[in-house]
Amino acid sequence: xxxxxxxxxxxxxxxxxxxxxxxxxxxxxxxxxxxxxxxxxxxxxxxxxxxxxxxxxxxxxxxxxxxxxxxxxxxxxxxxxxxxxxxxxxxxxxxxxxxxxxxxxxxxxxxxxxxxxxxxxxxxxxxxxxxxxxxxxxxxxxxxxxxxxxxxxxxxxxxxxxxxxxxxxxxxxxxxxxxxxxxxxxxxxxxxxxxxxxxxxxxxxxxxxxxxxxxxxxxxxxxxxxxxxxxxxxxxxxxxxxxxxxxxxxxxxxxxxxxxxxxxxxxxxxxxxxxxxxxxxxxxxxxxxxxxxxxxxxxxxxxxxxxxxxxxxxxxxxxxxxxxxxxxxxxxxxxxxxxxxxxxxxxxxxxxxxxxxxxxxxxxxxxxxxxxxxxxxxxxxxxxxxxxxxxxxxxxxxxxxxxxxxxxxxxxxxxxxxxxxxxxxxxxxxxxxxxxxxxxx
Length: 441
Known about the structure:
This protein is α+β, with helices and mostly antiparallel strands. The protein contains 13 helices and 21 strands. Strands 1, 2, 11, 12, 13, 14, 20 and 21 form an 8-stranded mixed sheet that branches. A 7-stranded mixed sheet has the order 9-8-16-17-18-15-19. Strand 4 and strand 5 form a beta hairpin. Helix 7 packs across helix 10.
């Protein structure tokens, strides 16, 4: 057997797995389709969360330590490891939600909930540490699938030398939500699709000047039903750049937002894509572990990193005759909010507002909650009676939509065991956006 471990995918989860395995003296090879592993070719939200909206226990608790020489140490205290990061690093203190006419709510206001961190710098650092530890990296090579064998696993790859087979004792599929490895085992047949593959463009722009208090350290969410897609967002990025999700040209024609874009210039664009499926309850088949977005709809960057580390530790135990795989499954099932169907109800309720309301109705709802520490879509889903007296027709429209969500989600709900929390308390998932530290009490 040539390798102890084959890692498929050179994102944060795959690189963390390769680094961990090499540091622990496993013979490991990482396969990546891109030639430049550290290059980011698809947009993603680059935030290291200290607290956020869902109780994802993989990061309970996490801390950040910055040194005088510009090294930021990202501590995952639960699993017990640290990732050193050197690159653009900015605090996120505000989450600001804005309606078409400019009414605002602040789920987070002047509260440190995370840091922007440049993903390319993060990947470059993980790659360097993996190579330094002795991991073999093969780039420009596509993993076509895998199969279990009596003594390990075969991974089928295609690169500059044509199609080949790599053999190892184990493998980790870290190749994202379009994972060919997961598909090759038929695992996606057990999953329900919540949202079809979304396509769009993220614009990285200079000169954007959001006229909102706290935007310099904030993520701005724009809820504008008349826009293509209905939503947009503006967040932090490197240097003087900000990145924007949504049709900025259409946004710049709306009087509320036109002044934001008077000096704006597009520096580069990046594709947005990806489908959302229900998660794999048990992301292990034979000698292969699927990690991160290959097995759950939303791992975030730091969730993928935690998966890569934990998967390697599970493999090491399994190779030593211990029950590493059952331990990983147990960790997996408690670590991601998407492991409960309440995650999907929360997302569906949040998205419903733009699908049923016009701009004026969204303005009314945001004005109702003006300046409160709340996400209007979720608060209205929890208690639509807020608007019943003043806007009975809007109330009925909102209530009808909310009442229809469980039926729409039946195929997704059917993939979960009956003891899942949402089946005991359907409204538990609609609570306020809470810090992680409160979520686990």
